[in-house]
Amino acid sequence: MNWKKIIWIITGIAIVALVAIKLVNNKKTTDSRVYQYDKEKPIAVSVDTIRLQPIEDANIYTGTFEPNKETKISADIQGKINTMFVDVGSNVSKGQILIQLDNSLLKLQLQTVEVQIEGLEDDVKRYTILTQADAVQGVQLEKAKLGLKAAKVQKATLLEQINKTTIKAPFNGVVTSKLNEEGGFAAPGIPLLQITDISSLRFTVNVPENDLVKFKNNQAFKISTDVYPDISLSGKVTMTGSKANMGNSFPVQFQVDNTKDLAIKSGMFGKVYFSKNNQVQGFLIPTSAIISNEAKAQVYVVKNGKAVLKSIVTSRNVGNKTIVTSGLNETDIIVVNGFINLFDGASVTVK
User: What is the DSSP letter of 29?
Assistant: First the structure.
């Protein structure tokens, strides 16, 4: 029995040893296959040398066109949708019928009330004659008159409800969304259609606080669109922001009359141009070279074969480049490509 126990113990120890050896070998194999990044190895980057160059001293603010009026149409009363007279893309005029709800039950109730009114009107005539002849008490005549007034109020209520089963356009525009279909159910507060008026547009830009004083209410500016650069629009300032947004800039809003063929659509981008009619010297760097870090703009500058991260201050974009107002010096060499694995103090080689 002792020999059997000894054999079992030796076998168990051997199995544990084999498993441990296997795990160690697996770890070595895994480590050999994992890519180990060598931080001392130089990183190949593309660079550009900073030069002072003439920049047109003009401010170009980019913004978005939005509809002057837009609303979602819903029913004032609930009911089944019998007919929808428009579809997405339909041009509609103010007062045009858009949707007809089922009102058959309301019309039957109206007929019932009209019959009641006829009977009450006869009662009033009859009680009037009898009261004048002292055949009945005057209180019966008063009750008949009150009943007639209540029936007429009920009729007016039903007529208003029937009128509300016909849903009409509140203003001229285009149907930009259809949210229900014929046979569906309409209820107050549930949108059925969306109508957008783009004959007049709102154009909003965000400007820094130093430039806010350039915009006065009712002042006209030229506005262009990115997709139709040949179309020149005139925008009148209707609002200047009283509170800065997260980027510490202020919204300025313009009222813009759309073209006759409504070429400018809601959501398109545009620019408002404010020129100072002179040129200044400045630094223009590729926007792609700028790294945003905790709301700060930074670039990598190459010095003595090392990439040094520097904070900069920018003013505005000019095409795919950005104007730098401080943080860089002429002849500085900045990294414009090759940011993978790049870090502050990394060794670099220029491609």
Answer: H
- Does pLDDT of 78 surpass 90? yes
Instruction: Say what the pTM is.
Output: 0.56
Whether residue 259 contacts residue 231, with contact meaning beta carbons closer than 8 Å, is answered with yes
- Tokens linked to 304: 């003595």
Does the structural domain 61-68+197-277 have CATH classification 3.40.50.300?
no
| Nearest residue to 298 via CA among 322, 274, 279 | 322
What tens digit of pLDDT does each residue of 213-240 get?
A: 888 889 988 888 888 878 888 899 999 8
| Alpha carbon distance 307, 300 (integer Å) | 6
- pLDDT tops 70 at residue 64: yes
Q: How confident is the model at residue 315 (pLDDT cuts 50, 70, 90)?
A: confident
Provide the residue type at 319 as one letter. Answer: G
Query: Is there a contact between 259 and 198 (Cβ–Cβ < 8 Å)?
Result: no
CA–CA distance, 336 with 220 (Å, rounded to integer): 39
Query: Boundaries of CATH 2.40.30.170 in the chain?
Result: 61-68+197-277
At position 279, the amino acid (one-letter code) is Q
Cβ within 8 Å of residue 159, ≥6 positions away: 110
313 vs 192, which has greater pLDDT? 192
What is the CB neighbour count within 10 angstroms for residue 322?
Answer: 21
- DSSP letters, 158-179, are HHHHHHHTEEE-SSSEEEEEE-
Q: Where in the chain is the domain with CATH 2.40.420.20?
A: 44-57+280-350
Long-range own/partner contacts, residues 105-109 (CB < 8 A, 24 or more apart): 106/158, 106/161, 106/162, 106/165, 107/162, 109/158
> Can you say whether residue 327 is alpha, beta or left, with left for phi > 0 and alpha for psi between -120 and 50 degrees?
left
DSSP 273-341: EEEEEEEEEEEEEEGGG-EEETTEEEEEEEETTEEEEEEEEEEEEETTEEEEEES--TT-EEEEE--TT
Tell me which fold the domain 44-57+280-350 belongs to: 2.40.420
